[in-house]
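Dissemination and training. As part of the outreach component of the grant, students in the summer workshop were shown how a complex can be specified as a set of sequence lines and then modelled as a single object. The example used during the hands-on session is reproduced here so that future cohorts can follow it. Participants entered these lines:
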Amino acid sequence: MKLEGEYTFNGPREEVWKIMRDPDVLVTALPGTKSMKQVSENEYDGEVNIRIGPISGSFNGKLTVSNEIPPESITLTIEGKGKVGFLKGAGDVELIDRGDGTTLMRYNGEVQVGGKVASVGQRLFDTVSKSMIKQGLDKLNETLQDRGVR
Amino acid sequence: MTKQFIGKRIKRNEDPRLLTGQALFVDDVEIPGMLHAAFLRCDYAHARILSIDVSAARERPGVVAVFTAEDMGKDWEPGPPLVSPPPTLQGVTFHSRRQAPLVKDKVRHAGETVAVVIAESRYIAEDAVEDISVEYDPLPVIVDLGKALEPDSPLVHDDLDSNLAAHLYQQKGNYEAAKAQADVVIKKRFYLDRGAAVAMENRGIVAHWDEKSKQLIIWDTTQAPIAIRNGTAVRLGLSENQVRVIAPYIGGGFGPKMMMFYPEEILIPWVSMKLCRPVKWIEDRRENFYATTSEREQLHDVEMALTKEGRIMGLKDDFLHDTGAFDPYGLTLPLNTQCHLMGGYDIENFSSNCTAIFTNKPIVTPVRGAGRQQGIYVIERMVDFAAKELAIDPLEIRKKNFIPPDAFPYNNVIVDQAFAPLILDSGNYLPVYEKAVEMIGYEQFVKEEQPRLRAEGKHVGIAITPFIETTGVGPYEGARVQIETSGKVYVSSGYSTQGQGHFTSFAQIVSEQLGVAVSDVRIVTGDTAEFHWGTGTFASRGAVVVGNAVHAAASAVRQKVLKLASKVLATPEDALELEDGKVRIADIPHTSISLGELAALANPLRGAVEPGTEPGLEATDYFGPQYGATAFGTHAMIIEVDTETMMIEIKRYIAVEDCGRVLNPLIVDGQIHGGVSMGIGNAYYEKLHFDENGQILNASLADYLIVTAYEMPPRIEIGHGETLSPLSKLGTKGVGEAGAIPVPALFAQALENALLDYDLEILETPLSPNRLFELLYKS
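and obtained this result:
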């Protein structure tokens, strides 16, 4: 399934970049994230709880960062599995300085799911993932404001 | 003369029990001390198993045992092949690959069984399944039939060079020579996708090994109890007579329950013996989508050679057939497809390569129609395109090409799924076709109604599709008929019943021979303790193969009755008649003896049974045809398409069927209703959506759209032909699958006709409102 969209942060690109690369911030921002731990320079292990309609369960997985061009773009690869299925995906994230103190994020990726999440949760997956992404980005934006960045 | 029962519209013997909830289904079986099983199934469609850790599951309170492939030790082996490849065909390639009860090394389709948990309740077992942790190495997945033979495709079976499961070639005459003579050659490519059988009752098994009596009883939703008994005995090292398989009432079979052995069918009895406890497993709906077989994905490249007058000179079809990850059912489906590619037409030259392909998808075995839909779809589509190309009326081109009635038995030269020659035993296609044309009012519709409705902006279309169906194949079935001292008749057979009305149709055959009420005949099927021999419920063969066995056994009992009654009543046999449960003297009706009294006399407590005779009024007989009886019919339909929503409304639906002698028109009508409903699903609603990872994206009844009353036409108008099969005394042919067979071809024709202004060319099935929308936008 394709995931793509845009989001505007109320802050400069460098700050958005910093916050995005901070695992302590990410663990609070991504909905359902129970833990996230940096295991090497570009790898994070984590546990995320996901609820899609009648299906809920936790996924253990790995997030890998590559093609990093601070503060412009980054590629994220995730791979996870749990009792209710598995998921893997990759996406490119781009940050564009709007020149007015705001930053436009563009993301474009593809995620594949299997198991119960796919066979029973399929028709809700699109909506749920979009809303999870929005919640996460809103939270990041809030953190950005809380840090007094403007 | 005895009263007639055959051909009468008699209400079903089984319905009071079914309708009041008094019929035994597998899940109704409760045994003290019974344990419950749940399976760990792999989510990946293709993955190597690196490690399995079941320790946490074993520790969960209430869990009795957990088994993996390793735990099975020397008892682990793949299931037996169900059908061997055709020995009579030269140059056949066939790689037999069968599923193991639990995966040891590599998972080949999502839903394969990796471990089984046995617990005090299903709840505990399901929770314990989640305690198991498996480390997988996911492998690239091959889903796409058209790409599976490419050199860089992932291999489903590593020991093979490619994903080719089987290849065979069949021909009749010389297609290339016919093509060289032809005025026109039409070429098309068709893609037919998968649907599920969706029986209301999923699969279920209860196994009870009794350590003291050394008896194993298995309740199983199988269509083949005798074969399951025999195979289980071999697998578990038991005598066949230590195993009793009961296939009780079953909520729909449709073919997938003929598949054997499913992993669970081997495991549950094996576990029961290991633990010396009864064990139950009932499949849930999601398991059913992955673990129960499904059907119909094929890719056809077809050529038809014709004269300019529309006479078909030859047909060539090279097709790929998706067999899923294993091929336990041999070549049954692609052979059925090949045998229906010529439909009911007199085609002298035929050439067909069939290639079966392994993919990382669930196993493919017959589903109601069993490869026949695909053949009929291809030929009927091709005839439609030929009519269009040659500007010939679609009715005329069919009439011109039907096999004429005096050409039967018609030898089609190629071999069928039973490796017997494809001989169409009997047929008279034109009257049945014309009856459908007349019933739907074709002339009036196309000349008056359709132009009027089109002028109003309505998209209405008409379609008329003939078909044939090979039914009633061997090898054999048997029956035992016994008159009890109560005067009631007991009949047993090794067949099994999933809702076909066997307890009534077979009873009618007995009633006609013995002059007893249909309700006084008790039929028992699906219990190996009651009858030891048989094959199984498949290929629309009940009315033909069991029907004629019942007829033969009942006739033999009738002879015994007459012989004994002649002695008792001191009257010659030909002066006697059987009526109302009595034998009476035809011209002195008040002088009679009841069948019950005769049964008692036939089993005396004193005196001697004479040498050369047997006690009781009982006989066993068998019927095994050399080849099948070919039924046929024509369906017709008028539909209206809403071009905003692409939803369709079936305005009228006509089914004219010729299944030889009709035993009970009420039951035949019911079979046609069920078949048509399944066919409508196959044509316009039901499709298993696989993603590129071999995941089914609609594995629930919320997302997989089965046909409901809303999608059905308000009425199915049924007509009957009655061309008797010369192959049996009863002259019966099968009708269980017929209703589903022509429907996808019929839909394609109707949609093209309704959407004439869009110049639509339909080359695929199943369609759906979504898919039709895409096709219309493309054109």
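The radius of gyration of chain B is 27 Å. Students were then asked to discuss how this feature might be tested experimentally.
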